[in-house]
Amino acid sequence: TVIVQAAGNDAVLAALDPMKRSRNTIVVGAIDRKGGISNFSNTGIAVTVYAPGVEIYSALPKNEIGPLDGTSMASPIIAGCIGLIKSVKRDISYEELIRLIESSGTDLDGESGVVMRIDKLLKDLQ
User: Fold this and answer.
1) Who wins on pLDDT, 21 or 116?
2) Neighbours of 103 (CB within 10 A)
3) Strand partners, 43
4) Is a pLDDT exceeding 80 seen at residue 126?
């Protein structure tokens, strides 16, 4: 089982939250439409990977849909990518998964963590 969790939306270091310090989880930050870290996303060495987290269409109260911002919008994208990876290589270890994410992702200037590149990752996986 792989645990994917949102980094948080306080524009602080994610590692300030003890729950984000586990080496056995994937912590997800949010990027904006321009591919930079969103102004609200928690950052730092505790963040494993980033995904879109601004203006993501979601379910809203009263049976409506609309755009929401947050690392809680970015983390399901990564969880879906993890599911896709595991559908290709069911027995992939957590360590292998992290190495693939890091080696195939796009670096963010001056930040730890990478932007997920599922297309490149799946090519590297084969």
Assistant:
1) 116
2) 12
3) 13
4) no
**In angstroms, rounded to a whole number, what is the distance separating the alpha carbons of residues 92 and 12?**
32
* Inter-residue contact 49 to 112 (CB < 8 Å): no
What pTM was computed for the model?
A: 0.93
For residue 55, which phi and psi values (nearest 5 degrees)?
55, 50
Q: How far apart are CA 32 and CA 52, in angstroms?
A: 6
pLDDT, mean over the chain: 94
Res 74 pLDDT > 90: yes
Q: Map residue 111 onto helix, strand or coil.
A: coil
> How many Å apart are CA 52 and CA 116, to the nearest integer?
9
Which phi and psi (to 5°) does residue 49 adopt? -155, 155
Distance CA 32, CA 34 (A): 5
Length, in residues, of the chain:
126
**Residue 42 DSSP class:** -
Bridge partners (DSSP) of residue 65 are 59
Mean pLDDT, to the nearest integer, of 6-35?
92
